[in-house]
Amino acid sequence: MGSNYTGICVRSTKGFPLSVRYLSELCMNTRSALVVASFIALAGTIASAQCGSAKAKESKTTQASYSSDGCGSKDEGGKVVHASMNAEKDIVDTAVAAGSFKTLAAALKAADLVEALKGKGPFTVFAPTDEAFAKLPAGTVENLLKPENKAKLQSILKFHVVSGEVLAKDVKTGAVATLDGQRAELKVADGKVTIENANVTATDVQASNGVIHVIDSVILPSDKNIVQTAVAAGSFTTLARLLEQAELVDALSGPGPFTVFAPTDAAFAKLPKETVDSLLKAENKDKLAAILKYHVVSGRVFSDAAAKGATVKTLNGQEVTTKSEGGKVLVQNATVTTADIDSTNGVIHVIDTVILPK
User: Taking the model in full, what pTM does it have?
Assistant: First the structure.
């Protein structure tokens, strides 16, 4: 959380059974204590926030958490705060009471997401502080708060929320599905946890309907749909031209979500030249549309699910089979060369061969 959290440290614990080893017991300097104290005073009572008896409670063999007297041990090299609270208030009220999430609270209100995050849940929220929002280019927040940008704001805020309660001890490196539909990348390394480009600076802030992890930067989902993403990549010019010819651009720009197995220009180049030329003829529009729809599945199917093996119906009506072979994911006879490219309305998997329906 920037300078407000200077001086807060934890002891790295090597004996954890899970992958997150950065958690231990909290220690803080005077300025940091004031920040956490604002949470305590307004969001609930921690048993204690004094660290005077930390050494007596130090342990390297048990999972770290806020001890019964609210105090922890010290370490010069710690990087992440563990700041557990009671759970008397919901996520929204906890954030509002803390005083350092005013921009987040205003954004939730503008996006009409307050009631949703006051719901039963549980939710895990990676909450950017006011300082995190201040890092965005000048005018960005003001622009997002405008009514005409409500959908975009909702997408960004939902990208910070995961369904279920994910405590710090359960965090592992990998992709996690957000309420936006896109996945965010979590990384645990060298005693630090990051989500996308943001550092987790405080963990396990308990609420009645979930948990908050504080982050120092706003994380942004893709703002391009499937077609825009493909065009921007520069390696799908043939696919883009065929989608336009088949009048499928609008369909794949719709809400979806869709999973697209996208052949590259090199994949189309494997076909006889006359095949592509023929497909571009007006009289073959239906045949072209059938081939392109054979590459599209309804819903978001990420590579980890595809690797487990599945037979799914395409928008063509026929089915395709995915499987894992030799450490690679295959769909029919095509190899996925790049997986899990997120877009606003689905996910793209790049394939090296055009797959053809029966």
Answer: 0.72
